[in-house]
Amino acid sequence: MFALLLLAGTMVSDLGVQHCMDFLLARSPRSDSHEPGYSVLLENCELALLTRGLFPWGGAIPDSVFTRYVLPTRVSQEPLTRWRPLFMQHVMPLVEGVTDIEEAVLTISDWSDSLTDYRPTQLRDQSPLVTWSSGIGRCEELTVFFMDALRSVGIPCRQVYTPWWLSVDGNHAWPEVWTPEGWKCLERVSTENRLPQENWFTERAAASALILAIVCDSVDGAVRYNAGVSFLPVTSSYADTGLLKIVDDSVEVWVNVFNYGAPRRVLTITPPLREVELGAGSYLLTWGWPVRTSLVEISPGVTTSFSPRESDDSGVEALMGIGVDR
Fold first, then answer.
1. Greatest CA span in the chain, whole angstroms?
2. What is the CATH number of domain 241-322?
3. Does the 2-208 domain belong in CATH 3.40.920.10?
4. CA 117, CA 106: separation in Å to the nearest integer?
5. How do residues 34-47 score in pLDDT, each as one tens digit?
6. Where are the domains of the chain?
């Protein structure tokens, strides 16, 4: 089937297989450069490039968006697998004749929902093929499955997550989809047949401390870049935010929320990173050894400067004073 599609597909940019391979190999574990990983990456690049000429939205996707959000073989920490051929075989017929990218996204969302249900599994992310065969996965694994379905037909998407919720003792991951109008949230546990979707988590996300998007590349504004992946703050797309600025060039500061009676770290601000947007609320900052603490309040639209050297180290006492209600 794919041999015929290769003949039918039309290239819409100057990107080639070698460029895509170089991009992935530079941002993948070293083991991917050897067999059988190398063959998986090569097939992935060929099929991903093919989709750009097969679907109406392909020509509207910039090369940088394609390489970062369609091309990758992994969404998170799942093992490398040959997921793209199988997903293409099943998803392509679903969007045949569909010209609108948002209509395609919602169609694929319904298909994904019909095959999988939420259920806690294991600590390490399972592959999308395991999620398909078992029919179950936790939120990140369902996100991986759905995003692979989208990417199999050339739709750019990225995983977004919060390290800790403020109102419950846990975290969450969900997908965002690229459209010509910008990034839009699609939380799969929803009955809203439109983008962005609103559901149970809309109010919870609006009170978030920190929300990060995972990008397969080094990008400006990231709070961390590690092993070819950037963690890009997108909190302001969901919540009212203010800017926390650390007035010291050398100190590493932990940003914690107070959740269910204990501090939960949401971010480590390590030099040269000195500022980050956070959702409005109270934060416990910790640094140094012996560990010192301070409580800071982030207000919408306001820059809060914090100097570890000038702090009075009263964070825990202040936090006990305000309790756990936020």
1. 70
2. 2.60.40
3. no
4. 17
5. 999 999 999 999 99
6. 2-208, 241-322
